[in-house]
Amino acid sequence: MATFHQDNQTVYGNQYMGDTVNVTHGESSPIDARTVEWEFDRAVAAVRELDVPAATREQVTAELIAARGELEAGETGAARGRLAGLLTLGGTVAEIVNNCASAVGVFLRG
User: Fold this and answer.
1) DSSP 8-state assignment for residue 4
2) Is 12 in contact with 3 (CB distance < 8 Å)?
3) Phi and psi of 13, rounded to 5°?
């Protein structure tokens, strides 16, 4: 048994278990529809609580809902682009979007 830290993960167990965790939770893992729904609902709720202009809140909410639809339809490239655009807003919006994207397995790398 071993404890090791890799890519912000803490894995308790032997190395084989650690390899399995890293493989099965990688970018190629299928996205569960319930996870997508739950994470995007959380993100939309968080955005609605932000102290930002109403127009910004509405824009970010609409983009998150559209990205969710694209992910559910299997259009990950379009969803990635939409979420990457939201990251340019910076601040708390970017933090919420990044947390949501990471949770559903959409990595915003080029």
Assistant:
1) E
2) yes
3) 145, -170
5, 91, 9: which is closest to 47 by C-alpha?
Answer: 91
Four-CA torsion 64, 69, 75, 81, nearest 10 degrees: -10
Segment 14-52, tens digit of pLDDT = 544 444 444 444 444 555 677 778 888 999 999 999 888
Residue 24 token pair? 């099965």
Degrees to nearest 5, angle at CA 41 with 55 and 22? 120
In sequence order, which residues have a C-beta less than 8 Å from that of residue 35 and are 6 or more positions away?
Answer: 103, 104
Alpha helices in the chain (DSSP H): 15-24, 33-48, 54-72, 76-87, 91-103
Q: What is the pLDDT of residue 13?
A: 53
Tell whether the model's pLDDT for residue 72 goes beyond 60.
yes
Domain-wise residue ranges, the chain: 1-30, 33-103
